[in-house]
Amino acid sequence: MIAYSDDRISIITQEPRFHAESASSAFTPADARNAQRFHRSLPGYRETPLVSLSCAAQHYGVDSILVKDESQRFGLKSFKGLGGSYSMFRILCERLSLDPMKADYTTFLDERIRQECGKIEFATATDGNHGKGVSWAARLFGCRAHVYMPKGSVEARRRAIEDAGSASAEILDRNYDGAVEYAAGLAEENGWILIQDTAWAGYEKIPGWIVEGYLTMVSEMESQLQGKVPTHVFLQAGVGAMAGGVESCLISLFSGKKPSITIVEPTEAACIYQSVLQGDGEMHSIGGNPVTIMAGLNCGTPCRVVWPYLRDYTSCFCACEDSVTESGMRAYASPFGTDQKIVSGESGAVTWGLLLSVLRSDALRRLFGIRPDSVILLINTEGDTDPEGYRRIVT
Ligand SMILES: Cc1ncc(COP(=O)(O)O)c(C=O)c1O
Question: Is residue 126 within 6 Å of ligand 1 at its C-beta?
């Protein structure tokens, strides 16, 4: 099952399976359009760019390398605010009996509705970016949030959560899964609403809305691609909510010519890779206190609502050492020729680091089916969310 392994990268390949039963509950382009309709109503909404690294593409002999650059999203430096804001919108619509297909952010500017929102508190656990998005969204809607971070979280990221909106943020002496449990327990005790970007049995609706929020990226890309169909998509994963949702939506959008999808994780926290390796079709947790600079990807348990798509629709699962993302960060910062420079943080650059290794190796190009007409799509999921760490690596 392991098709390739060296001291930096391990790869599992499989023939994807497109079962009817997973397709029926899939995240669709219609979900993406609903999410985008809401996001468009938010103050400061702007499409993030789809950057073409055409000099790199020419150098490596492929048709295109396209990067959806989320480093500037809502001024939060990552895509994560898309999920936090959309799920908060859906939760509040449900609480206040508003129709989410008719309401949007402007509905929440009404004084009476704001007063109701002021009584609502949220809790969540985060590696950083999700908490920042929740804090920001809580301020937009006039709510409050309580954010908990795992052991090893960087102080700059904790402070950024408080600065982004109306949340308190605390670093715990627990791993990520432990922090999720802690936030869920406190929410239960205090009557707060848990707004968590991963799912488990019995907690699926809110994470499902978070995933739908991420799909605004797909909706934007659909028009930005201008008819080009990606042949290869590389998606980084923590719990896999973003990757699984985007994957499901892309497979539905390009159903006639499905792209090959690669899921990329840090070796130390490769819960999707390890689940697939076990080969029983189930998802598994990795436990322990994994250490990786890819903080946003440092998660021990896959997200249940997207697990079927991750498992079935993916062609390649990759586990990468930290040095892979470091090389991606540097390559984004010092691009080929006249290609645009992209600021990409530790969790944002691993797919570019991996793709560079693939493009430089004949054996890996064959394994991934890279050809002169390949159209390769990546998402830079974050900018310099830890500016000091970024400078240390890139300069
Ligand atoms: C920058 C960044 N990229 C990717 C991810 C992965 O998202 P998910 O946990 O849904 O797999 C995260 C998660 O926090 C993140 O912060």
Answer: no
Is the CB of residue 306 below 6 angstroms from any atom belonging to ligand 1?
no
Q: Kindly report, residue by residue over 9-52, the tens digit of the pLDDT.
A: 999 999 999 976 666 678 999 999 999 999 999 999 999 999 99
Contact 193, 145 (CB under 8 A): no
Q: Which atom of ligand 1 is nearest to the CA of 129?
A: 16
120-176 per-position pLDDT tens digit: 999 999 999 999 999 999 999 999 999 999 999 999 999 999 999 999 999 999 999
Best of 210, 242, 342, 384 to mutate for ligand 1, by most ligand atoms within 8 A of CB? 242
Closest atom, ligand 1, to C-alpha of 242: 10
Closest CA to 145 of 153, 155, 137: 137
* Structural domains of the chain sorted by starting position, each given as residue range(s) with its CATH number in brackets: 2-78+212-394 (3.40.50.1100), 81-196 (3.40.50.1100)
Would the CB of 243 count as within 6 Å of ligand 1? yes
DSSP for 146-186 reads: EEEE-TT--HHHHHHHHHHSSEEEEE-SS-HHHHHHHHHHH
Q: For ligand 1, say whether the CB of 247 is within 6 Å of any of its atoms.
A: no
Sole residue written with tokens 């954010």: 147
Atom 14 in ligand 1: which residue has the minimum CA distance? 296
* pTM score of the predicted model: 0.97
